[in-house]
Amino acid sequence: MPVSVPHVRGLSPWRCESRELTVARAILPRSLMEAARVILHVDMDAFFASVEMRDDPRLQGRPVLVGGAGRRGVVAAASYEARKFGCRSAQPMVHALRLCPEAVVVAPRHATYVEVSRQVFDIFERFSPLVEGLSIDEAFLDVSGSERLLGTPRQIADAVRKAVREETALTCSVGIASVKFLAKIASGMNKPDGVTEIPAGKELEFLTPLPVGALWGAGPKTEERLAQRGIRTVGDLRRLGPSTLTSWFGAQGAHLYRLSEGIDERAVIPDREAKSISNEDTYAHDVVGVEALKRCLLSQATRVADRLVAEGLRARCVHLKIRDGRFVTETRQCTLPEAVDDHRAIYGAACRLLESVETEGRSFRLTGVGVAALEEASAPVQLGLFDAVGSRGRAPGGAAAAPLRKDSLQAVLSAVRERFGHQALFPGAAGSERRGGATGAISHTRGAPPAEQAENPGPDGPRKPGRRGDGGEGHR
Ligand SMILES: [Mg+2]
């Protein structure tokens, strides 16, 4: 009998999928992969200074410098009022006070900033499981695939800003683009409290007039060397072509050229402890056809739902992972309108995600269903717009009544399977594709198995965990 290996928080295979996605992007036609990418870069506005101004109303509207007040103090953050005087973070405090003598100097409260940062990242994770922090106050969110439920990229950006404003009383700015570095540039263009979108197809138009220093990896030295040759804008740089740039700057030149073309294949790599539950199977024989794949997904959705119930959790995000016979791995994700622990809801979402995978003429060696954006099942369930009063199991007065029938059914099914094994009360259509159980030929994987990792290591080798703040992007 097949053994189910549930992936619990911290052990999730989804943590390494972005690397695989990068590989997939390198293999598949660009149009196929890029069409689906929507990346937000969210950057809190003058983060430390804004937190101080929020917590001390006397500071509002005044130039505020957060940092050490001593002779050797350095500005950690300057409010927008102080920036008007030329004050900037990383300036010596003495210098900043010369520029703006009336500025109020506030000692940093790092514990508070960390706490607010955690709050803000929790909000980000409600919009996507793919959240990559660049620092305490900025992150990339890959919201590809969330459009159907969350709206257009701009609507998603506005919803993020609204949630941040309502829940933390702080503002942030958002950049929207099809690749990371453009989203990052965009978020800085309408600060504070602004949104800048670079629509797909407009990347070159946006990039051409920008100074070369806007590109990641083009530091002041590179900028100076280019300026000596009359190269000032990204457009100038692009016209040089890849071979000239490579002869001047080696690999960095090739990198800059790709950026000048708007090409940046770096995936958004989630770096927080992955809070997800997933289940995947590698098949002894490749699975062919949508119906067969759906049976696999039903089995996996059921195991994931059981795990959710066992842990007393519900999930708002559903992922699909699928790997074909050529080891090309694709992932899809979506956000649900409400948190669920019902296998039918998870299965339904996985099937919708499967629709966006090209299945014609391909056979698949692995499928996986996962959930993220977990919350306690006891958390209050928001009333749906069209729910009749009380239909979520609440009396009109708000008091909890008997839970919904489907909820209790899921709990009973899960409990029975918990007790009598996975095959007991299994949904009729599921499981028949997990062939070879009797022969033991199926390998049930936890994370990416070493053998497959070796076959498909990605362009940069295995990814290291804990990437936040590791400087790996080379753009700071
Ligand atoms: Mg910031």
TrEMBL record:
It catalyses: DNA(n) + a 2'-deoxyribonucleoside 5'-triphosphate = DNA(n+1) + diphosphate. Mg(2+) binds at residues 43, 137. Its main location: cytoplasm. Residues 426-476 are annotated as: Disordered. Residues 39-219 form the UmuC domain. Keywords: Cytoplasm, DNA damage, DNA repair, DNA replication, DNA-binding, DNA-directed DNA polymerase, Magnesium, Metal-binding, Mutator protein, Nucleotidyltransferase, Transferase. Residues 461-476 have a biased composition (Basic and acidic residues). Coiled coil: none annotated. It is found in: Cytoplasm. The record marks 48 as: Substrate discrimination. The keyword Phosphoprotein does not apply. Binds 2 magnesium ions per subunit. Its cofactor is Mg(2+). The active site is at residue 138. Poorly processive, error-prone DNA polymerase involved in untargeted mutagenesis. Copies undamaged DNA at stalled replication forks, which arise in vivo from mismatched or misaligned primer ends. These misaligned primers can be extended by PolIV. Exhibits no 3'-5' exonuclease (proofreading) activity. May be involved in translesional synthesis, in conjunction with the beta clamp from PolIII. Monomer. HAMAP family: DNApol_IV (MF_01113). Belongs to the DNA polymerase type-Y family. This is DNA polymerase IV. The gene is dinP.
